[in-house]
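Most newcomers find our protein records easier to grasp once they have seen one. There is nothing in a record beyond a sequence line and a structure line. Getting from the letters to the tokens is the skill we practise here. An example says more than a description, so a record of this kind follows:
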Amino acid sequence: MADLAVQDGPAPTERPVGDPLVVLSGVDKHFGALHVLQGVDLTVRRGEVVVIIGPSGSGKSTLCRTINRLETIDAGTITIDGKELPSEGRDLARLRADVGMVFQSFNLFAHRTVLENVTLGPTRAKGVKKAAARERAMELLRRVGVADQAHKLPAQLSGGQQQRVAIARALAMDPKVMLFDEPTSALDPEMINEVLDVMVGLARDGMTMLVVTHEMGFARRAAHRVVFMDGGQIVEQADPETFFTAPTSARARDFLSKILTH
């Protein structure tokens, strides 16, 4: 396997964070009678790594998907870099270019090579010249450790390699924030660390990240803040050391007792 481009340097949490970049205020979301998000307030600061954890059905993925309007909201506001999330049209497309997203499934174009998958967004959405897009794509593929796979089709790659290509594809748009919706949940156990190592490298480089995950080791290693959700609400949030050693809510203590002892 190619060496992963994880940067040496201080731990991600030693890097300072800046001004508010993503702000959710009073966000509500219903799916029919199900109240999935209930008055959610959350601020992610520039350079901050926020990890969202909680039981299945707690609203974590829905929250993540509202930030680039893959899911609409019923009430409240979401702003990115001071601008409220547009409802549709070109303004929404421009804003989505600022928000990179990596899903559980890799969502790569099966009929295009790895290199084509990474260059497509910048050339079509941002008008980047093909040569410049290819140069940047190869730089990013080296960064995530799959440059030697550039001319293969996604089906010829392992799941871990495909997810790293998906990360490179999102980075190619030069986003202000990266959203990760359980990026390792579809991977075999031996492939999880190669993806998490890339994510730790991004955090160390100062990328603003909001990560929905069940990987508690990543939360301890890379997060500035852990946000615990249950029943569509943020129940508790704290730095990783505080959260994992001294959670204040009974719901968080119960959740941790189940996942940390198995």
User: Anything to note?
Assistant: The chain has one domain: 18-258. Residues 1-8 have pLDDT under 50 and may be disordered. Residues 189-204 form the longest helix (16 residues). The domain at 18-258 is CATH 3.40.50.300 (Rossmann fold).
